[in-house]
């Protein structure tokens, strides 16, 4: 459904949700900026996560309140932390370079096209899922064979399944000559930078590719400095960076993005119950902020998909959303994983702290490395899912489309409009705006016709418009216009604040 996605991207730009980073210079691939509305939306998402999950009133499977504390760690950490975590050695995708076009492709994304039953002397590569690329490869093949081919004549094979002989006759997706694609090579996804003035490999450091490791390296500090006792969690929201080979699908796969992560430390023998509890809780939370319905699903990973540390664990699952660009498939919003004691042990070993770094459980009078359940969510993917879910075409409206955010997520909670610019209406409106803005994101607008002002608010996803009209002057009431069904009701101006509090918090 690419048309719908194009429309969403256009609305995001037009209304100031999301812009391409450095747009005036032509943009930079894989980086995105949030405009005024997008900033509020993403902040509402992150605040809801912090309030509901970290400071929330959750009750765990043991019947006790769930205890979580926060940290805010640096983006650049000691480089050895990334050796311990496995990122320096393993955080890479096999890549293929094209010597002719200089383009770089993920090896597992490349497919080769040939003709069935034909002794191949040339094969044509394309990126899987790229329909235009496939059409181009097909044209090249037909031109090369000097005949047109039916769909049934085509044969496709993954690039990773071929050997050197066939690589020598493969033509790259953006190339004209054969044999210009290299063997797949490892490509590290971490951004490298230099700390200090001297350009020397000993000064290399990395921008963190996940916020999780800042939590693990501070485990002991948090235990020593606060009252937490296993089971408890440490949470962090912050930027992460990955030099993704093919950033795509708007903000879904970016090179700079924000994560909301919890490492929840538990006794090793309670992994099954805590994993099952977090899995259900995280799914429920995404539903609670407006992603209910068939577009959200929970998918348990197959055993053979699992990372090495997770194979023996209680499980790994993804909470996924059906984005217009993945439809009918789904894309990951959050992963929930039982990581056992892998990370704490790795850091204990690499930092030289060894067995001393084990946690002392006073109740049981024993030392151990706690196991970890990790719910790891993306704030940008979450924001994108909210945008896609909210997007509602409606030909009967002046705006032709409205954004159906829940009042809690909506960037602007209410628009405040004097119907006309006279008879004291603007003054009443402005007074009300000054009052409401102390507790809510509200907008005062006195320009243009009331229909145009409603249309602007529909596109911004504002759930309520409060209009001061001639009846206000007589009886002190105003009109509330509800975004979704355009229903109108009257409430007292001096009760508007209380009314809005209930309307926003009750949803
Ligand atoms: P994918 O398989 O899609 O690359 P991942 O499994 O590598 O994702 P994790 O390492 O589990 O992702 O990261 C946790 C969360 O961080 C993801 O669920 C996602 O919401 C977010 N995330 C990861 N990579 C990106 C990215 N390139 N752009 C935006 N968000 C991302």
Commentary on this structure:
- By secondary structure, this protein is an alpha+beta fold.
- The protein is built from 15 helices and 27 strands.
- The strands form 8 sheets. Strands 3-13-14-20-17-16-15 form a 7-stranded mixed β-sheet. A 5-stranded mixed β-sheet has the order 24-23-25-26-27, with helices on both faces. Strands 8-6-7-9 form a 4-stranded mixed β-sheet, with helices on one face.
- Helix 2 (36-54) packs across helix 11 (379-390).
- The longest helix is centred in the N-terminal third of the chain and has 19 residues, at 36-54.
- It is globular.
- The structure holds adenosine-5'-triphosphate.
- Residues 210, 242, 244, 253-254, 257, 259, 332-335, 376-378, 380-381 line the site of adenosine-5'-triphosphate.
- Adenosine-5'-triphosphate binds at residues 210, 242, 244, 253-254, 257, 259, 332-335, 376-378, 380-381.
Strand order of the largest sheet: 3-13-14-20-17-16-15
Q: Which class best fits the helix and strand makeup?
A: alpha+beta
Total count of strands: 27
Query: What is the radius of gyration?
Result: 27 Å
Shape: globular
- CA-to-CA gap between the ends? 30 Å
Helix content: 25-40%
Which band does the percent of strand residues land in? 25-35%
Largest sheet: 7 strands, mixed
Mean pLDDT: 93
Cofactors and ligands: adenosine-5'-triphosphate
Total DSSP helices: 15
Q: Give the uncertain stretches in residue-range form.
A: none
